[in-house]
Amino acid sequence: MPSTRDIRRRIKSVKNTAQITKAMQMVAAAKMRKAQQAAVMGRPYAQLMNEIMAKASEGTIGFDHPLLQSRPVNRRAVIVISSDRGLCGALNSNLFREVTKLDKNSTVFITAGKKAAQFISRTKRNLAAEFHYKDTPDFSEARVISKYAQQLFLEGKVDAVDILFPRFVNTLTQQPVLMPFLPIGKISAATAGINEPAKDLASHAGPEIFEFESDEESVLGALLPHSLNFQMHQFLLETKASEQSARMVAMKNATDNAKQLIKDLTLEYNKLRQANITKELLEITTAQMAVG
Amino acid sequence: MAATLKLEIVTPEAKVYSDSVDMVTLTGVDGEMGIFPEHMPLMTQLVAGEVLARKNATEIALAVGDGFVQITKDRVAILTDMAIKAEDIDEQKAEEAKRRAEARLQQKLSDEEAATVHAALAHALAQIKVKQHHRK
Questions:
Q1: Residue of B42, B81, B115 with shortest CB distance to A210
Q2: B43 touches chain A (CB under 8 A)
Q3: B42 to A211: CB separation less than 8 angstroms, yes or no
Q4: What phi and psi, each to the nearest 5 degrees, are found at residue B6?
Q5: Do B23 and B70 share a domain, yes or no?
Q6: Residue B93's domain spans which residues?
Q7: Cβ–Cβ < 8 Å for A96, A119
Q8: Mean pLDDT in chain A?
């Protein structure tokens, strides 16, 4: 039987925890709004980029670029994007469950975010490189990751690059998704990680043959890597949005649980206190009766 | 008969401009070009500098960064990493950014950093150029 003082101490500690989780929830909520907004802002750009790519590739039959080449896949790289910190519910563990499904020997991993790097090295998988990104992902951070992946692909070290990231569905749901990154397949299908309905962009205005200035090699040669970099950036933004909303929900649950616990403990405390008082009263009356 | 062009300028942060205009002037890799409606389909790379749009005899100037342009007969789509309207440009800030970028170029930089600094410098120069044109 715990004493009243023990219970009081526990209530105090749970209250402190609740305060911290409440604060984290507020911070995550504020950051989430920003992250979601950033992810949404990129949409018109992504849409227009896809449109341009779809139209351009349509007008250039027979155009070949090393980034478009699909080879039989012997080795592949997977870019895993996770959060840097924990306390965000099942976000990272769901992601890593997908990782464990991949073949250990023929897959090399590129990680963005500390948690992914820790997991890959802890489970002794092949870690090719690890990258970091800030709370508000920069385009330059995305460019570094995407460049590295392109290099691996172009040098023939891997035959395909996939991306594994927590897709932001809504505030309550984030879904780990494995998406092809390289080679660039059917361009119109490669929406930059947003929940856009897959529009048939190609049939937009009928086939048009484009002139290229200066020549198609240099224009498409610049456009393809750029669009990959941009996609990468979009993935990072989306991961951040997922992370913050997962954290907000997890912290809200923690706060609610703590409050419930405080309620239960308070009830127990009061009961015990009451029992003590009754006991004391009883003792006093008994003593009085013995004297009288 | 498409008598106007639909000009769309989009950056990763926002859709900066979307309107029908009569003519667009921009700088491509092979030099400046003016685009009227019924232009032949063309794709090119955009060089940081000035984009001029003429609508009902008024001119709208924008400073843009590097990017891509896709031209169809009734539409000009510009995809760039920066686009600011002339009246929104803060010249002092641009000058400051230019100085900062130039100072950074004196130091030893990795490829990545250099690319970022070069882009920043191009942005600043474009803004200054547009602002000066606009004042005349």
A1: B42
A2: yes
A3: yes
A4: -95, 115
A5: yes
A6: 89-133
A7: yes
A8: 85
Q: Which of A41, A160, A128 is closest to B14 using CA atoms?
A: A41
Q: Per-residue pLDDT tens for A161-191?
A: 999 999 888 888 899 999 888 887 654 444 4
Q: Domain span at residue A233?
A: 42-248
In this model, does residue A140 exceed pLDDT 90? Answer: no
ipTM for the complex shown:
0.75
CATH of the domain at A275: 1.10.287.80
Query: How many independent structural domains does chain A possess?
Result: 2
**Taking the model in full, what pTM does it have?**
0.81
> Do A244 and A255 reside in the same domain of the chain?
no
Nearest to A49 among B42, B44, B79 (CB): B79
The C-alpha atoms of residue B80 and residue B83 are separated, in whole angstroms, by: 7
Q: Which of A162, A181, A166, A73 is nearest to A116 (CA)?
A: A166
User: What pLDDT does A58 receive?
Assistant: 65
Q: Which of A219, A223, A230 to substitute to test the interface with B, most B CBs within 10 Å?
A: A219
A83 domain-assigned: yes
